[in-house]
Amino acid sequence: MVQKSHGADLSVRSVRKVYTGRGQAVEAIQDLSFDVNAGELVCVVGPSGAGKTTLLRILAGLLPATSGEVTLGGTVVKGPPPGMAVVLQEYGRSLFPWMTVEKNVELPLKEKGVAKAERKRLVQEALEAVSLADAGKSYPWQLSGGMQQRVAIARAVAYEPQVLLMDEPFAAVDAQTRLELEDLVRALWRRLGVTVIFVTHDIDEAVYLGERVFVLSNRPTILLEEVKIDLGAERDQIETRTHPAFGRLRNHVYELVQQAKKGLRSIEDARLTH
Amino acid sequence: MSAPSTPAPARVLAATGGGLWRIVLALLLPAVLVTVWWFASADSTDPQVPPLATVLDKFPTVWFAGDDLGSSLFVETVGQSVSRVLIGYAIAMVIGIVLGVLIGTFRPLRDFCEPVLEFFRAIPPPILTPILMLFMGIDHALKISLIVVGALWPILLNTIEGVRGIDPVLKDTARAYGLGPVRRLFSLTLPGASPQIYTGGRQALSIALIMMVIGEMFAAFDGIGSAIAQFQATFSTASMWSAVLILGCIGSVLALIFGAVERVGLTWYRGYLRSQRGGA
Q1: Are A18 and A26 a contacting pair, CB within 8 Å?
Q2: Residues in chain B closer than 8 A to A93 (CB atoms)
Q3: Domains and CATH numbers, chain A
Q4: Are B176 and A111 in contact (CB < 8 Å)?
Q5: Which of A158, B7, B40, B216 could, after both became Cys, cross-link B223 (CB 3.0–4.6 A)?
């Protein structure tokens, strides 16, 4: 079994991001503050162009915020923090095509200084966890899109992170694979106890996966609402999705995102039927 | 990874048959050219263009005279030339890749160097021969230096392009997992740029050969270039033609070796390209 690592809490304080290019400043994120508890799974949704990816890149330490700060486990994020793993949307471009699947999963472990025997064990277990135990010697480009994204997830899992950031990871895989991968993420999350931030544009996916769903506004982005998803720990693609509570939450988030698209900037101004 | 539905024996046959057919195709044109040369020159009385039969006839006496192979003109000449090419080429590779990685990685350095690089790229390397001779005389170092300054540019410029073209998503991934500079170099930068480095290396190899010959013609008493110049000066045209043949063979063998290394080194790249085209 992959060890249960302890998630870290993530705190975002008054983060603002202004892009300055060609003399024209564009405010992508106006002001975001929120907390994610250790071991929580939070989904982030919003209209397209809501700065979701910008936010995730700031959380990952890949992009500096213009002001405000992000802390992970009490430490201010200044660059990519140790104990953080990412899974990006472009699976075909985030795996090293010159390395086998095994080597891809192993690479971050080498940097972490994990001993060889231990690396081997972690790689094998992570590949088993995503049902790719036999694909270790293949190259990523020999696999289907869904399998490639599972490799990226295995790489993240083997790393034993405290926080796992996922940026629309299933946006480019087919619908059936997508449902399987959603259940895989839920299962791994419960097993590992890791903090997960899952960015998606798919409202159903967000409600199905998350313990809470953060709804963002249009840019310049603010947080419209933190929606608590009380669907219990056990989720099932058929049971959960047909449950009345799921429908209610889904419609609520859907209405919010629709109105956010039209420029809604405060939950007080929202006209909600659900 | 769907398995092809053709039965295995048929596949093997098709594969080997295809390989054989390709070898036949590859050898066909040289065979035709030699045949044409043979018959076209057979009755030649022009001393500048002796019959191919005469050229081949003289081959052993010119190149393999003497008792042991080791001290024959052939081994000495080819050995000198090939060692010069390989040493110069290796130095150009190292300098080109090191500088290329640095310039390709650091944006300000690139902006700083680019205009000068364009200038040097525009200068045909053979022009440098008399200039370098002024500074270096005609010793061994000159001939190596000529090869280096000729072969350097394609390697350098292609490496810069290769490093610059590495997918930003891969760079983000490497950063997110905190890869250190050394691991980044060997796991991301060099393999990521390797397709372009091979392209540059291939171009550089032919330039290295040209510069080797030019250097030897102008400033050497040994090596294949010098042999061609000397045979020409003494009107030994049949020997001169045989030296040209040897030179062509050296080039072909080096290109074959390069191709074999490239095939192994870029196995992943060909598979990757195929999968991209397949629309996976």
Answers
A1: yes
A2: 167, 169-170
A3: 10-83+162-269 (3.40.50.300), 96-159 (no CATH)
A4: no
A5: B216
SS3 A29: strand
CA distance linking residue B236 with residue A49, whole number of Å:
77
- Do the chains contact at B275 and A96, CB–CB below 8 Å? no
Task: Answer whether A111 sits within 8 Å of B268, measured CB to CB.
Answer: no
Contact residues on chain A for B275, CB-CB shorter than 8 A: 141-142
- A138–B183 CB contact, under 8 Å: no
How many beta-carbon pairs below 8 A join chains A and B? 77
Superfamily (CATH H level) for B78-277: MetI-like (1.10.3720.10)
Q: Going residue by residue through chain A, which has 274 residues, state the pLDDT in tens, using 9 for 90 and above.
A: 444 557 789 999 999 999 987 778 889 999 999 999 999 999 999 988 888 989 999 999 999 999 999 999 889 999 999 889 999 888 778 999 999 999 999 999 999 999 999 999 999 999 998 899 999 999 999 999 889 999 999 999 999 899 999 999 988 888 888 898 899 999 989 988 899 999 999 999 999 999 999 999 998 999 999 999 999 888 999 899 999 999 999 999 999 999 888 888 887 787 777 6
Structural domain spans, chain B = 78-277
- Which of B172, B183, B269 shows the shortest C-beta gap to A111? B183
Separation of alpha carbons B153 and B118, rounded Å = 10
**From A83, which residue of chain B is nearest by alpha-carbon distance?**
B177
DSSP classification of residue A77: P
